[in-house]
Specification:
Elements: E1 4-10, E2 15-18, E3 27-33, E4 41-49, E5 63-71, E6 77-83, H1 90-97, H2 102-106, E7 124-129, H3 134-143, E8 147-149, E9 158-161, H4 172-180, E10 188-191, H5 197-210, E11 213-217, H6 224-234, E12 241-245, E13 248-251, E14 263-264, H7 268-280, E15 304-308, H8 316-324, E16 327-335, E17 338-343, H9 360-380, H10 385-405, E18 420-427, E19 430-441
Parallel strand pairs: 4-8, 10-11, 11-12, 12-16
Antiparallel strand pairs: 1-2, 1-3, 3-7, 4-5, 4-9, 5-6, 13-14, 13-15, 16-17, 18-19
Length: 458
């Protein structure tokens, strides 16, 4: 995203916050950020006169400014910064003019963010005023009603609207490049709409590159025929891609009254939250319980006062068609202790009738164990070949034994009593610099269907 620069200008009788410098400003604070703002952001400015000694070259060093950016809807804090004005030149000029006075430098707004503080938000901040205008600036601060004295009970401040950012949507290629360049590679990618198939294709390319999972919400649809047609049009036959449909509406979680309107919302946010909470429950070896799919009774959807949207039909025909299309639907199921809204299935987009990779938890185990082995092998590369094979095999075996103990892998029928088979060997055509890895295992499955046979006897 192109960086945006905001200019807070102090005028003789007013203050402005805009995306262009004001030549009539007595003093200004120039703030550059890569974040974007909508129409609901406001800035609150406070100035406090600390009555400390000042020099002739910096007569406003006794006035501390505090700038807060908040969401005007819920008043939540977005970011804040606090410091003094400088006569111009930014952090570079400060370091050049005061190389041995760190306390003076870090007290300026210009140095904001340079120390990687908690509220880092702006890429750079540059303040500017002239010594000759110092008295006029103090008068302007008083006129604007933001100048406070030390110990004032009532804090005077001024709130100004932050101009909305003109956001240019990223292209599919930019999205892909941004995700691939992330320092910490994601394990899950979430898409809450299907308006842009190029975006979904870009996510699929990232999924292939870094071997992660993509969760897609099919959107605000009321017809199961449209949902299955959309799933077919996406057409990505891969166990790492899952589709979800929430054909329900609910009240906002922070609604204080039953009069709050029920609206549709995507379900993948709740799904991702429950997935991460599940993954956080690691065992003593650090293995997450990904053998438990996020679906069914133990993972209810946490939306308030849910009800099915008008016109939605989820009869047996619809559910069978959605299952065949690999779409997981949020449905209401009746249990012994009452009903619950749950993710009614745990299937991926992998096109198979009986493969384990058709199941979400099995697919997660496959990617997790693959990434685990590859990350260990990568640690041991650029060693001597004999040492590489021995050390990588030993560490991978210990890690995979922990996966077995955690219930991620089950005993297959084809490996002669072994839970997994891992072979790291020098490659036949170039045993000096290349190695082959062969890895077989059976992930835990998921009980999707039960066939009941009952008998009444004498």
């Amino acid at each position: 995203m192109t960086p945006q620069t905001l200019f807070l200008s102090i005028l003789a009788s007013s203050m402005t916050l805009s995306d262009a410098a004001n030549p009539a400003a007595l003093a200004s604070i120039e703030m550059t950020t890569h974040y974007a703002f909508d129409d609901n952001v406001v800035a609150t400015i406070v100035a406090v006169d600390e009555k400390s000694a000042v020099s002739a070259t910096d007569p406003l060093n006794n006035i501390v400014f505090k700038v807060e950016l908040r969401d005007k809807i819920d008043n939540s804090l977005i970011t804040q910064m606090q410091g003094r004005l400088f006569t111009g030149g930014g952090a570079e000029a400060l370091e050049e003019q005061y190389p041995n006075n760190l306390s003076y430098i870090v007290g300026k707004l210009d140095f904001y963010g340079a120390l990687d503080g908690e509220y880092d938000f702006f890429e750079s901040v540059e303040t500017k005023y002239t010594v000759a205008q110092a008295a006029a600036i103090k008068t302007a601060l008083t006129t604007n009603g933001i100048l406070n004295q030390m110990g004032d009970y009532r804090i005077k401040s001024k709130t100004i609207a932050v101009p909305a950012t003109a956001v240019v949507p990223a292209t599919a290629d930019e999205l892909k490049r941004t995700l691939l360049d992330m320092k910490d590679q994601p394990r899950y990618l979430v898409c809450a709409e299907t308006d842009s198939l190029p975006y979904i294709e870009a996510l699929a390319e990232v999924m292939d590159k870094i071997n992660c999972h993509v969760m897609v919400d099919v959107g605000n649809l009321t017809s199961w025929e449209l949902v299955t047609a959309l799933a077919e049009s996406i057409g990505i036959d891969d166990h790492r891609l899952t589709l979800y449909w929430n054909p329900n509406k609910s009240r906002p979680n922070n609604a204080a009254t039953v009069l709050a309107r029920k609206k549709w919302r995507p379900c993948v946010g709740d799904l991702l939250a429950q997935t991460l909470l599940r993954n956080a429950r690691t065992n003593s070896s650090g293995i997450p319980p990904i053998n438990r799919p996020v679906a069914g009774y133990d993972f209810p959807v946490a939306f308030r006062d849910m009800e099915k949207m008008a016109g939605v039909v989820l009869d047996e025909e619809a559910q069978n068609a959605l299952a065949s299309a690999g779409v997981n639907v949020v449905i209401n199921e009746r249990f012994e202790g009452g009903d619950r809204w749950i993710y009614g299935d745990a299937i991926t987009q992998y096109d198979s009738e009986n493969s384990a990779l058709r199941l979400t938890n099995s697919a997660e185990i496959e990617t997790y164990t693959t990434n685990l082995v590859l990350s260990i092998v990568k640690k041991h590369m650029l060693k001597g070949m004999t040492s590489f094979v021995r050390d990588a095999t030993d560490e991978c075996s210990r890690a995979l034994d922990s996966c077995v103990a955690a219930g991620l892998l089950v005993l297959p029928s084809e490996l002669g009593g072994l839970y997994y088979l891992l072979q790291i060997t020098p490659r036949a055509d170039d045993p000096f610099s290349k190695a082959d890895i062969k890895f077989s295992r059976r992930p835990e499955g998921c009980a999707r269907q039960v066939f009941f046979e009952g008998t009444v006897t004498k």
